[in-house]
Amino acid sequence: MSNTYGEWLRAQRESAGLTQQELAERAIMTRSHISHIEGGRRVPSREDARRLDKALNTGDVLSTFLPGGGDERALADYFEPVEPLQQQATIIREFALSYVPGLLQTEDYAKAVLGSAFPPVGEAERDRRVVARLNRSRVLDDPVSPVLWALIDEAALRRTVGSREVMSQQIGHLVELTEVGRIRTHVMPLQNAYPLMEGTLTLMWFEDQPPCAYSEGHEFGRLHDAPAVVQRLQNTYDLALGEALPQEDSLTLMRAIAKDHLTP
pTM value? Predict the structure, then answer.
């Protein structure tokens, strides 16, 4: 994210005689989020930008010149501020309830997931979204960073998305990344009840800024940066992880499920 956007926001805030806290209250945001935007560390969502424009009486300037506008349109509005954070994070911990996490999806699996959107999207738009998702996953091309742990509900592995072949290949991709040590994967058995069952969760840590979290449910997502909230979500993740299978047992189960998908 270019810091020109953040610098302009800060200049408009100071010109209006507002502190970060006062602007946060007017725009219904947290002060820390305002600080990160002004510092060039985070991208506001379109809704955040609209609220900032309204709070500062700047028309639609902050909405119109939102950084990365061209690529961001391939993302849901609520995910927009999360994408650059995933690219900056040194540690990522994912929890997936219904689908394999986006960073770990194969092309065919991503096509099946994005092709099931409602209202339906055309093939060209679906493919554009797939490319955007695969481009984000290239962060794993680095052999060391970010450190990524995936906690995946067994249901997400057993549900057929696309086809049996697509599922077998997708699970094989997870197994391969885990076997070579690029990620850690833990499967949550179906018989367990555990925290986090309400939706998905992504935890992120950084070298030069406080950790944050992103939670998502049906048709909504929320970025969390309040320290107390982030700490609570981290603790909830840890509690759920304690209910999951160890990595070797998870690998054994994933191999068996991949085989089951190909069994008539």
Answer: 0.74
Range(s) for CATH 3.30.870 in the chain? 77-261
Question: Among all chains, which residue has been given the structure tokens 């119109």?
Answer: 64
Asked if residues 184 and 52 have their Cβ atoms less than 8 Å apart, the reply is no
Structure tokens at 165: 């072949």
User: pLDDT 10s digit of each residue in the chain, 264 long?
Assistant: 446 788 889 999 999 999 999 999 999 888 888 888 888 777 777 788 889 999 999 888 887 777 654 343 444 566 777 888 888 899 999 999 999 999 999 999 999 999 988 888 888 888 888 988 998 899 999 999 999 999 999 999 999 999 999 999 999 999 999 999 999 999 999 987 898 998 899 999 998 789 999 998 877 788 898 899 999 999 999 999 999 999 999 999 999 999 999 998
CATH class of 3-67: mainly alpha
> What would the CATH number be for the domain defined by 77-261?
3.30.870
Q: Is 60 helix (H, G, I), strand (E, B) or coil?
A: coil
| Own/partner pairs, 172-177, CB within 8 angstroms, 24+ separation | 172/258, 173/104, 173/106, 174/100, 174/104, 174/150, 174/254, 175/251, 175/254, 175/255, 175/258, 177/104, 177/140
Tell me the residue type at 205.
W
Contact at 8 Å (CB) between 84 and 1?
Answer: yes
Distance CA 53, CA 44 (A): 12
Contact, 139 vs 103, CB < 8 A? yes
